[in-house]
Design a protein that fits this description.
The protein has about 210 residues and is α+β, with helices and mostly antiparallel strands. The chain has helices at about 15-30, 40-45, 55-70, 110-115, 120-125, 130-140, 155-160, 170-185, and strands spanning about 1-5, 35, 70-75, 80-85, 85-95, 100-105. It is built from eight helices and six strands; from the N terminus they run βαβααββββααααα. Helix 1 crosses helix 3, helix 1 crosses helix 4 and helix 6 (about 130-140) packs across helix 8 (about 170-185). The chain is globular and about 65 Å long. The two termini are about 30 Å apart.
Length: about 210
Amino acid sequence: RSLNRLSFKDFSDYDLNFLMAVCAKIKDLGEEIQHFDYDKLMELLDWDMTKSIDIFHKDLKRMSERLRHVGATIEINPDTFTAFNLFSEFEGDKKKRTLTVRVNPRFKYILNDLTTNFTRFELSEYVHLDGKYSKLLYQHLKQFRRTGWWQASVNDIRRELAIPDSMPTRNIVTKVLNPSIDIIKTCKGFEGLNVEVIRSHRRGCKVE
């Protein structure tokens, strides 16, 4: 089977933090239905505690809508594929200050895969990374901790980091990779992280 990459195109920093928290808890407890306390979510998301619960509830609803529509496609063979949503239910209760999440049980292993390379410390580290691109790059690089390097095409980078097609290739290095690497280098084990640009030998020296 081959799993097409999940798309986080419209996600914000908070959305990604919330997704990783949900994945980690489901993985730890091994159940499809999880209950989250609003106060603990606020702490995890670095929420401004001076704001009202109404604002948090509204923001949580927005995040839940985005996360609820995260989907993927599994290609079993050239003639068969299955498309699905990872989450089937999000229920926020402002009075009880709780959020109930139900994950699609058939595909829970995908959520487990998202946090396979994360310890509890690294999950906390991830949450405090600044910027969507640094989070997605950090998450992806964790898969290559054994080899210590990752070689990828420009298209791979765009897909993995949810970079819009409208962004010129020259800006991917200067405005996405370099700033993200500077942030990730502050994390343990990534102090020597750097990016090497590979260019085509053809006319124009296009970035590959």
